[in-house]
Amino acid sequence: MPIQNKHEIEELCSLSKKLEAEAHQAQTHADAAKAKELHTQLQKVLEHIHQAQGKAMNGDDTSAEPLYQAQLRVAESNQQMEKLLTNLHAQKDSVQP
Q1: Where does the source fall among the domains of life (predicted)?
Q2: What residues of the chain score a pLDDT lower than 50?
């Protein structure tokens, strides 16, 4: 999905904040199903952000700073979901005989 304008960049930034909040909820509730779903969504959004950053570096007049902040939010949330899934899996393995 190529980024066309500032509006789309703002949408990506908004989406990154929404997913960050959802990731925090999944972590708080130790929700494995939600964590898996978010992990997939976060990877897709991260890919879109990388595309937008490439376009911004290739002469688009929009600032790359909001994209950088969105990338940090998404990458950190993605790592949290990976860690949550690993921990939940380890817990499940240690509980079963």
Answers
A1: Bacteria
A2: 1-3
